[in-house]
Structures are given as C-alpha cells and as structure tokens.
Amino acid sequence: MMTLDQLNNANAADFVALLDGTYEHSPWIAERAAAARPFKSLAALKVALAHVLREATLGEQLGLIRAHPELAGKAAVAGELTAESTNEQQKAGLTACTQEEFAKLQQLNAHYNARFGFPFILAVRGPRGTGFTREEIIATFERRLRAHPDLERAECLRQIHRIAEIRLNDKFGVKPRLGEQLWDWAAELARHSDTDDFLTCTYATPAHTAVAAQLMAWMRDECGFDEVSRDAVGNVVGVYRGTSEQRLLTGSHYDTVRRAGRFDGRLGIFVPMLVVRELSRAGQRLPFGIEVVGFSEEECQRFPADFLSASSLVGTFDPAWLDKTDAAGTTLRDAMQAAGLPGTVAAIAACQRDPSRYLGFVEVHIEQGPVLDSLDLPLGIVTSINGSRRYTGEVIGLASHAGTTPMGQRRDAAAAVAELILFVEQRAAAVPEVVGTVGMLEVPSGSTNVIPGRCRFSLDLRATTDTARDLLDLDVRTTLQEICARRGLSFTLAPTLAANAAPSDAAWQSRWEAAVTQLGLPIHRLPSGAGHDAMKMHELLPQAMLFVRGGNGGISHNPLESVTMDDAELAVRAFEKLLAII
Q1: Which of 128, 236, 359, 361 is 20 to 30 A from 111 in CA distance terms?
Q2: What's the CATH code of the domain at 23?
C-alpha cells in the first residue's frame, strides 16, 4: 500500500508514477500537484489534485473528460478499458446488463454525446463506495441529459474527482469506516417515512416516533451513552458524562421536509454519536460531558410553530402553539399525546436548559448549497446564519381584454410583480452575502387573452446581518410602493416570518477552523442562508457550525441530497479535533 511519506519524499517522476491511474490518462494533474508537497493528510492530497484541475484550462478539462470511456460503451465491450475503469464498471454490474439495459445505455450514450460533445461521467461506485444499481445509473443518466452544458461539464469534473478519491482510497488501503457507518445509519432511518414513495418524516407521526426510538437504541446499545431519553417535545437526548459537570451541547434535527434527503439535520446527530461511540470504546472521558440532542422539529412542516423543539430548550416555547392545528385539524397537543408525549405546558417548560452548565452549542450540517461542491472542498466554516424576513403579497390591477386595451392604458398586476422580481434580484446581488427571492407566483383566474388583474407572490429576504437584511427589506417595500403608484395599482403585503441573524461565536468558530486545519484542509468561511437549530440555540449559548459538502451540486430538501462516506468521515474527525482543542 502507498503511504504519504512515499509521496512526499519521491522525486517528481516517481510521484507521478505512484499516482498513475488516479486520473484517466492524465499524468499532468499529478505533475502539477507535486509542487504542493508535503501533504499533511490524504484529504489534503485530494484537495490539491482537485485544485489543479479547477485551475486548468477549459481545453485541459475537456481533454480529461473525453479521456474517460462511455459506460458500457464500445471500449468496455472490446475490453479496452484501463484496469481501474474495468474494475469500477464490473462492480456496478455494467458488464452484466440485460439486452434491454445495454440497448438503453447505448441510446443514452449517443444522445448525451450529441448534446454535450463528451462522454457521460459517473462515479459508479457512488457516495457509499459500494456502487449504484444499473437502475440508478440509468435514472441518473436520464436526469443529467437535461442539464445545461456548463453545469454538466462541472458535474463531470466533480464525478471525476470522486472516481479519483475512491481510487486513492484503494491505493492507500483506506476505508472510511466511520463515514460508512454514518451513511448506513442514514439509510436505515430513511426506512421510516410518512409516505411510501419519498422520505417524509413530519412531527409526531408514527414514522417520526419510530426514528426517535431507533436513535435512542443506537445511542444506548451501540454508542455507549450514559443517559438516553426522549423529552416532552420528542427531542432525543443522549449524555456522555465527562469528569466535570460542564457539558458541550450539540446535535441537529431528525424531522424532514416532504420528499426529503437523508442527511439534512440527521448528519448533525450521527457525527457526535460516532464520536461518543469511539470515546466509549476507548474508555475515554473528557474534562466535560457531551450532550447530543436529536431535535424533534425544525422544518415547520406539520404545525405552524418555528423551531418548536429548540424553543423548549431555550425557554421560549409558546403555549399557544399547543392549540395550533395541522392540515387535518389535529391540534399540536393531541398530536403530542398520540405520540406518547405529555402535551402539557409544565412538562415542556421543564426542558429548558441552564446556560451556566454548558460550554456552548455546536452543530454539523450538510451545506444545502453549491459553494463547497463547486470549490471541491469537503468542509466549510459557517460565519453566520442569515437573518430573514418573509412576506406573502398581492398586487391588484384591472383584468381587461388583451387585444383591445392599449399598452399605455393597462393596469397589469403581473407585470408589476415581474418588475419587482428584477429589482429584488439586482438589489440583492449588489451587496455581498445578501439574497432575495420571489419563490411563488400566481395569477388567479389567469387567461391567455386577459391582462392579469391580480398577482399573488411570496418574498424571501435574507442577509448575514440584521442591518443588511433590514436595508434590503426597506428598499424592496419602498420599490413595491413606487412600482404600484406609477402603474396605478394597489397591493397588500403580509409578513409571515422575521428571524434575526445568528453570527457564529468568534471563539467557537476559531476552534472549528483549527480542527479543519489539523486535518490538512484549507479554511473556507461561508454564511448559512438556511435556518438551523443553532439559530435558535444562539439565544441561549455561544454557537458555531461546521458545513459538510453536499453532492449533486449541493442540492438539499430533495431525494438527490447526498454526502460521500469520505466527507462524512472528515466531519467526524473534525469533531474529534474540536473536542481536543476545548
């Protein structure tokens, strides 16, 4: 097996030879990466190789893509693949296709090449390393065939890096066993769903209760927690005692959106669970305890109660929420009691934590965005969780005939909202780390030959500071007034959410940065545009977050959401480093 010492001490020619086959017929990548030695870790080597390719010319990138064989293509049939490619296609079962599957792949290869001018690239051993099924490969092929050429070229390069990562693991004899365990836990929990077609796990449903029971069983039976319980709002709480009464609080949520992925929230429960498992197996106690909370509700999918479970820990649970109803008319109180929870104000109030007992709150979370994936970085440091303001609005004009009403005499509600959309886009883009979105549009009773008399819309404004958010908010509302006044329209705008920004605590952010540095990885800081449990815990304790790269362009809240076992392993190792720094 290869070692880092071998690579770091080899001459340039031997360095390239040792990495032969990592990237298909492209020794120039290794040649350029040699200058980045010495590598502190295998992860550092992987990042350095990816950096070379990201900085390469477009022609070089396309050359590498075109050096790869088609899946189940002519080269495979003729036995002309490299040993590495042959092994990978065999493990994915591509050498055992049925006649129908083979014909389908040949058709997809032809269509893909005609559209993009290069072969379809997929790391067929997948994020878990055990391989996609042929059905999954064909479904991915069909989905990506619809992509924009620029996006697809970038995705091919990311898939090439994943192929290289798996090949390097083989060369070094590395198995990311903690990452594999995390991946398998995520798959096991995903069996519990409110629906059969896609993962959906909303608050206080039978699937939700089953997930809580499974987490408790793993904490108790596999991980060695000293105390495991489920509190009055359904939070799963595991405590691993330290040599003092002080504790570090950590965790994330286990509920999901509808049609969810497997890692949003749950990743941040699994990571500290694995850390505790390793400590317990080693018989090691820290100077402080570790309290892991699987927050029962963060997504606000079933009941209109933001951060329901984290609010109970902070002491801001609103008793009026107990009378809120879901779409079926069930109250939150009744849902709690049906799930075996007390559903009383007194029991919920007892969940509140005493901040004097805790060092702080840290959370590990999938990024839910494309930044880390586009930079080929497995981990990122969160600087702040964005504050936000949300509205639902309606512009009211006059519905009139599309053919008989002159352009200068129209009162077009949809055109006014379109103008607002463009302003939101331009205004948000003009300021770093500010975003604005009109995500829903509706023209009630719209018709092809009728000028829209009404247009409903949503508005979502976010920024890393409350000041930047409020300036954006003011400008957007002022502009809406101006647009409607100029066009002779009226409007309504109703606030639906106002959340303050949660900047990371400087000391805890610095500890995360030190942990990532010790893994040999570069530091990349970025804000979180999405809300998290840490946003609520910020009201009680100093907090900081670590982001983990998401696959498939960073997509989340979607069945395509993915994390590789290697990135999951790095997240666990970073958490271990964090504990050693405290």
Answers
A1: 128
A2: 1.10.3330.10
Tell me the C-alpha distance between 414 and 411, whole Å: 9
Within-domain flag for 283: yes
| Beta strands at 525-528 and 379-385: parallel, antiparallel or unpaired | parallel
Q: How many domains does the chain have?
A: 3
Which residues share a beta bridge with 249?
291, 361
Q: Does residue 247 fall inside a structural domain?
A: yes
Joined together, the tokens standing for residue 349 give 């109030």
Of the residues 131, 157, 172, which one is the last residue of a structural domain? 172
What pLDDT digit, counting tens, does each position of 2-18 carry? Answer: 999 999 999 999 999 99
Where are the extended beta strands (E) located within 397-467?
Answer: 400-401, 434-437, 441-442, 450-451, 454-463
Whether residue 8 is found in the same domain as residue 141: yes
Same domain, 52 and 160: yes
| Helix runs in 195-299, H state only | 206-217, 267-281
In a domain, 377, yes or no: no
**Domain-terminating residue out of 126, 141, 172:** 172
Pick from 517, 536, 532, 523: nearest CA to 574: 517
364 lies in the same domain as 449: no
Other CB atoms within a 10 A radius of the CB of residue 480 amount to 24
Which amino acid is residue 177, in one-letter code? R
Q: What is the DSSP string of 78-138?
A: TT-S-HHHHHHHHHTTGGG--HHHHHHHHHHHHHHHHHHSS-----TTTTTSS---HHHHH
At 24, list the tokens: 């298909």
Whole-angstrom distance, CA of residue 113 vs CA of residue 68: 13
227: which 2 tokens? 């105390």
- Average pLDDT along the chain, 582 residues, taken 10 residues at a time: 95 96 95 96 98 96 94 58 62 73 91 96 94 92 95 96 96 97 98 96 98 98 98 98 98 97 98 98 98 96 92 97 96 98 97 98 97 96 95 97 95 98 98 95 95 97 95 98 98 93 97 98 95 95 98 93 97 98 93
Q: Token pair for residue 294?
A: 């699987």
145 and 277, same domain (yes or no): no
Range of the domain at 296: 179-369+528-549
Q: Are residues 410 and 338 in the same domain?
A: no
Answer yes or no: is 66 within a domain.
Answer: yes
Element (H, E) at 186: helix 177-189
Q: Which two structure tokens, joined as six digits, stand for 574?
A: 């970073």
Are the beta carbons of 554 and 370 closer than 8 angstroms? yes
Q: What is the DSSP string of 383-408?
A: EEEPEEEEEEEEEE---EETTTS-GG
Alpha-carbon distance 516 to 518, whole Å? Answer: 5
